[in-house]
Amino acid sequence: MNVQSLDLPEALTLLGLEQLPEDFVELSRQVAWHQPAVQAWSESQSLAYRVVWEAVEQQIEHPGEPVSG
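Now predict its structure.
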């Protein structure tokens, strides 16, 4: 897996998520459930979180439009 680039399905999988959360609160809750806070994140996990965050942001700002990623 190229750490420089992840698509949305890869990012979701890497974070242990099955689907895109509906908002930032849900994203935080789901990530906290799947990723222990006592363990440092890898570069790829950090990138995955950013990819998913941006997709959630796009979903909130443009409801009804398909989310790219």
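The chain has a mean pLDDT of 87.
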